[in-house]
Structure formats: structure tokens, C-alpha cells
Amino acid sequence: MYDAGKILTGLIIFLALITVPFWYNALISGQADYRPEPKLATSEKQCVAPTDYMKAAHMDFLNRWRDSVVRRGNRMFTTFTGKEIEMSLSNTCMSCHSNKTDFCDKCHTYVGVSPYCWDCHLEPQEVRNVSQ
Amino acid sequence: MSVNRREFLRLAGSAAAFGCAFNFPLRAIAGEDSLTAEAAQATGPLKAGRWAMVVDFQKCREINDCRDCIDACHAVHNVPQFDNPKDEIKWIWKEKFEGAFPDIEHRHLVHEVLEKPVLVLCNHCDNPPCVGVCPTKATWRRKDGIVMMDWHRCIGCRYCVAACPYGSRSFNWRDPRPFIKELHREFPTRSRGVVEKCTFCEERLAKGLIPACVEACKHKALYFGDLENPDSEVRRILSEKFSIRRKAGLGTNPEVYYIV
Amino acid sequence: MLERALIGDRRYWLWIILLLVLISIGFLFYLKQLAYGLGITGLSRDVTWGFYIAQFTFLVGVAASAVMVVLPYYLHNYKAFGKITILGEFLAIAAVMMCMLFIFVDMGQPMRVPNVMLYPTPHSLMFWDSIALGGYLLLNVIISRVTLNAERKAIAPPAWIKPIIILSIPWAISIHTVTAFLYSGLAARPFWLTAILAPRFLASAFASGPALLILMCFIIRKLTRFDAGQEAIGKLTQIVTYAMCINVFFILMEIFTAFYSNIPEHLEHFRYLYFGLEGKSRLVPWMWTSVLLAVLSLVILIVPKLRHTNGLLIAACLMVFGSIWIDKGLGMVVAGFVPSPIGHVTEYSPTLPELLISLGVYAIGFFLVTIFYKIALSYKEEAMA
């Protein structure tokens, strides 16, 4: 191989950089397999849709709610358990998910996204004490 | 085979551009899923064929220094209060007669009429020029006549502000949050970079409530109702008293009427 | 091809570095604007479009003016323009890029600009403007690339480029017409609501654009061995002269209608521009300067002995460019908002951040022109040797 020294050095640096998310997070959290743990303090047992679905698709779900409420003026929604609720991020979702730092931020910070919902949709004021 | 640098860059660029462009048709094809299907509209909301408002200027001008409607609207919608007039945001306010009705005003007008400020707001025109110019449909005219705003979609180009003949629209020149005296938690604020205006309290109408300004007026100078309902208050008062509209000659067909 | 832009003398690199510095400053202030909001500019509730949109409006004209060299050469076989069509096209690309950047920096929510394409709205002129500008950029990129490539290989360009070049001619007219339609369809703004706005835009475009091209030719003659030729420059001068005469004529038409009809709604905006309104007269000295520059430039351009003197011709071109920049940029856009639809007279001045961001955008345009011209001219110089 020509310039073997330079190429191998370059490759090693590249591999180190490309795996930064893995080893950096492991260093910071002290765990090899770090997962965010959002904490929820509410009496409701179930969200408006199945938990696994919400984990994967709450962004799209909220977008559809937004279009329904804002663009079509349709505010009523039947959850998958048959309950009728008002589609509202501020008033419905945030009545249970009332602590942004303990719940929403946990995953968002982990994956490095900053959704701008809270630029407008007011974050609930109460910060309930969440049990460990 | 050997590919020279230019050909490689051309191929890579075209592939990337094609990949990006392919995103849009894919989104269009992706459909709804059953979990987000909307329920039938529940009873409770106020509905109309054509919402309209009548401002009884005769009554309103008898009361000096009254801001009940303005304060109610701005409070319930988290409208900010800026000290610098250039950043001002207002959904409803009082304007000098010559500003509200430039084509009618004259020097020898009844002194009482000339000197008193007129309550002005978005006219929710039948033929709204602001809707015509919006490039993203961030503002549109609903079937019930309300000219609505989607603050998620607005790109802040201010074309609608240029197009409005009544000066009804305000732009968020900076972050409004620090300038909201008291946050009303049931309604979102807006962020910087979007245009806002009166929406005839569509969120209150959906809950069966009349607009905040109409409710707040202690002197019953504001009427709100359905023009297509012959028994409505607005139809009644318009049939009894002489009314005018702002800049009617422009063809916008404003739906806020003034008893003068 | 691009590597040709990496070879240059000290002057060239100093110029490039200066431009990159200006671009960086502009970019930093843009970040400030993103953080604070558009309130960092001099805009207000009454004057919602200002310096950025004024530059956009003016530069669309410069972009459209490439048609003034393309049309005679490709439709009428005017051979003298053969050497400079590529310069016109490159100038058009840089101008359209600046237009798009000026629009971008003016947006309140720039990250949402793709909404214009995601939610197409045919009844909005802004939708058509973005299509027209995007299309024109694409056309000019393809045309300039293919023709320069052919020139580099010293062969004729492929036959399929000819219809695309022909398409760029009406397209150039349409970009500026659509931009004029943005303004001239608004019932709320009587100052803009005039059928002559689009013709005014085109006339001023065909005066200011070729004037800039003439200046570019003189600069290139000084810095390289490339000479556009006296015939080409002479013909461009004729075009500028006629276009400027028509432009001034159109302005006088507007002034007559406004002042003679005496309708306050129309008259007040002109009164604000040329005499001041309610004691506010910030734009008055600018407008009269524009008038003076227009008159002086026409004197030079019309009198043969004067326009054949290179020094005076350069001065005339600068004056044409400056006069139209003031009239179309500051004058036309800002005066549409003064007085406001409810009669308020609110003045506008760009702030320092606004000017520095604009300077950054201009620097990007000049940067593009520099590297494009460097590439094109290096091939032309080679061919001459």
C-alpha cells in the first residue's frame, strides 16, 4: 500500500470520530448501555394511544392533531380505548405530561433534538416531585 | 472503468438531488393510520354559515377611555405589550375616525363622530386579499367566514401584511414571551417570525363561547352572530340601523359592520 | 473548470479574502438576527418590507437583464455579443442567487421556506415568483455550463441547448413581471396598484443591468487581456440609453397621473418621496439625487461626443445604476408603506445589522461573479493566445 502510514492513521481517526456518540455517552453516563428514563407522575394509566406507538410516532401524531384542530376546526378525538377527548397539546397532552424536564427533555436531550413546540405551547408551570 | 472527478461529482450531485426530490412524492403517498382518525364533531361548538360582527359606534363613542374589549382579547390570547412602538402587536384597537374611514371623513363631520376613536380589528373579509397572497396557505378563509391563521405554517414573509387594506395584521419582530404581562395558559403564545391577527375567537366558538371582546363589552356595543341566520342579532341590528364598512370600495367585502 | 478559480495574482486573492471577510461578518450578524428576530432591522408594524426586499426587487432586474445580450445574439445573430453572452449569464446567476438570499434573510421563519413548495398555492404570486426565480437559476446554470464547456473544448455547443437558451428569453421577462405582480396586484397599496409597474420594472432592469455589464467589461479590460470589443460596448450603451429614456418617461407618467388626478390615496406616497409628508422627509434627498443622476446620465448617454468618451461613459453607467438603485430599491418599496393603509406616517431606516447582512449577501454575489468570470475569462484568454 502506498502511504500506508497516513491512510491507516486517517482511518483510525475516522473510526474514532464516527463512533463518538457511543463511547462519549457511555463515558458521560457511566453506563455502557445508557437509556433515557422519562418519568411521569399522573393518575392516568394510559395515553391516548398505545405507548409503543406513541414512542415511535408521537411527532407525526401531534402533526395530524395540529392539522385537524387548526386547519379543519375539528377538535374531538376518540382514543383507542373509546374515550372522547379534545385534541390539544397544551391542554390534553400536557395535563398528564406536565413536567418537561422529567419527561419530554429526557429523550429529546438524549437524541439531540430540540422541538420548538414550547416556543408557543406553554409548558405547565407545576413541577411535581417525581419519585425515583 | 475509470471515472474522472467531474463525472463523479456530477453523478453524486444528481443522485443526492434525486433522493431529496423523491422525498416529496413519498410523503404525499403515505396515508393516514387508523389511530389518528378524527371523531365525529361533538355538539357544543357554535356554528354558523357566515360569522360577522357589528360595532355599535354610536354606543361605543359615548364611553371614554374604555378598553374592556381590547384588554380581554389581548389577555386571553397572550398578545404581548411592547414598549417600542415599532414592535407593536395588536389584534383589536381604537383608531382615529379618519384612519378607519378615510373615504368618509371630512372636516365638518359631526364633532362627536370625528373626535372619537373607532374600534378596529380584522374584518374577516369575504374576499380577503391576505388569503389571496399567502404562499403557504398559512392564512385561509374558512367556510364559516373566519379568516384563520396557522402559526405552524407561517414563514413570516409578511406578504399578507402588505396586502391587508386595513392594517389588521401584526408581525412578531422579536420573541413575544417576555412581554406578555400574564400568561393565559389555555391558549398558546406565538413565536417570533410569524404574523398574527384576530381569529374571531375560533377556539372559544368551538367551546360554545362568544368572542372575548363581545363578552367583555359591558355596554353591549358589540354584536356577533351568523349573517345567514335571519333571526340572529347581527341581522336584526343591521336591518334596523344604518351601517357602513371600512373601505368598501376595494371589493374585499369586509364582514365587520359599523353603526355610525 | 472550477480549479481555474484557484489560480490568481495577489490582487485577486486579496479581493477574494476581502469578500470572504464581508461574507463572514454578514453571516455572524444573520445569526444575531435569527436569535433576536427581524426586530433587529429598522422595520416596524407599518413598514414591513424594507432594505432586504428592496435589494431583491432591484436585483431581479439585474438578473433579467442578461436577456439583453442573449436575445440579440441568439435570435438575431448579432455577432458582436457572442463573446459576452456568457458574462451576462454568469451575472444573471449571481444576481438570482442574491435575490434568493435577500428573500431568505427577510423571512421570519426561514426554516419553513420549503412550505412554499410543499403546499403550492397557485393564487399567490410569491409561489410563482419562487418557481420563476428557481427556474431561471436552473436555466442559466445549465446554459452557462454547457456553453462554457463547449468553448473550453473549442467546439460548438450541442444543438439541444439552443431551445433552452431561447426559453430563457421569455423566462427572463417573466421573472421581473412576476416580481412586479407581487406589488401591482395589491388593492391595499395604491402606490403600487398601477399597470405600469411591470413595464417600469422591465425598463429600469434593461437600463441598470446592461449598465453594470458595461462596467464589468471595462473592469475586465483593465484586469485581463479580454476585450469585449467596442461594437459590443457601443450596442450595450445604446440599449442602456433607450431603456433609461423609457424608464424616466414611465416615471414621469406616474408622476403626472398622481399629481394631476390629485387623489390623496395615490398622491401622498409621491409627496412623501419628493417633498416629505407631515414633516417626515428622510427619503427626499435620496429621491432628488436619483433624479439628478438620471438627468446627468441621460445627458452623457444621448450626446454622441460625450458617450464615446470612455471616462464619461463609465460615469454615466454608474449614475444610471445608482439612480435606478435608489428609485427601485429605497423609493418604490418603502413608499408603498408610507402612509400606511390607516394613514400613519412611519419612517424607515435600515439599521447597522441590516446593512451588514445585506453587505454580506452582496459580497456573496460579487464572490460568485468573481469566480465565474475568472473561470470563463481564463478559457477565453487561452483561446486568444
Q: Order of SSEs of chain C, N→C? A: HHHHHHHHHHHHHH
Low-confidence stretches of chain C: none
Biggest interface and residues each: B-C, 51 and 47 residues
Could you give the order of the helices and strands of chain A? HHHEEHH
**How is the biggest beta sheet of chain C arranged?**
none
Number of strands of chain A: 2
Cα Rg of chain C: 21 Å
What would the principal axes of the Cα set say about the shape of chain C?
Answer: globular
Tally of individual domains of chain A: 2
- Count of extended strands of chain C: 0
Largest sheet of chain A: 2 strands, antiparallel
- Average predicted local confidence, pLDDT of chain C: 95
What is the architecture of the largest domain in chain C at the second tier of CATH? Up-down Bundle
Protein structure class of chain A? mainly alpha
Q: What is the distance, rounded to the nearest whole angstrom, between the alpha carbons of the first and last residues of chain A?
A: 56 Å
Using the alpha-carbon principal axes, give the shape of chain A: elongated
Beginning-to-end CA distance, first to last residue of chain C: 18 Å
How many alpha or pi helices of chain A?
5
In CATH, what is the class of the largest domain in chain C? Mainly Alpha
What would you call the structural class of chain C?
mainly alpha
Helical content of chain A stands at 40-55%
Verbal overview:
The complex is a heterotrimer of chains A (132), B (260) and C (385). Chain A is mainly α and 132 residues long. Chain A folds into two domains: 1-34; 35-132, no CATH class. Chain A has helices at 4-18, 20-29, 51-72, 89-96, 100-111; strands spanning 76-78, 84-86. In chain A, strand 1 (76-78) and strand 2 form a beta hairpin. Chain B has 260 residues and is α+β, with helices and mostly antiparallel strands. Chain B has a single domain (51-259), classed as Alpha-Beta Plaits, CATH 3.30.70.20. Chain B is 28% helix and 13% strand. Chain B is built from ten helices and ten strands. In chain B, the strands form four sheets. Chain B has a four-stranded mixed sheet with strand order 8-1-10-9. A two-stranded antiparallel ribbon of chain B has the order 2-3. In chain B, strands 4-5 form a two-stranded antiparallel sheet. In chain B, strand 4 and strand 5 form a beta hairpin. Chain C contains 14 helices and no strands. The longest helix of chain C is centred in the C-terminal third of the chain and has 33 residues, at 352-384. Chain C is mainly α and 385 residues long. Chain C has two domains: 1-184 and 351-385, Up-down Bundle (Formate dehydrogenase/DMSO reductase fold), CATH 1.20.1630; 190-196 and 228-348, no CATH class. Classes of the chains: A mainly alpha (132), B alpha+beta (260), C mainly alpha (385). Chains in contact: A-B, B-C. The interface between B and C is large, with 51 and 47 residues.
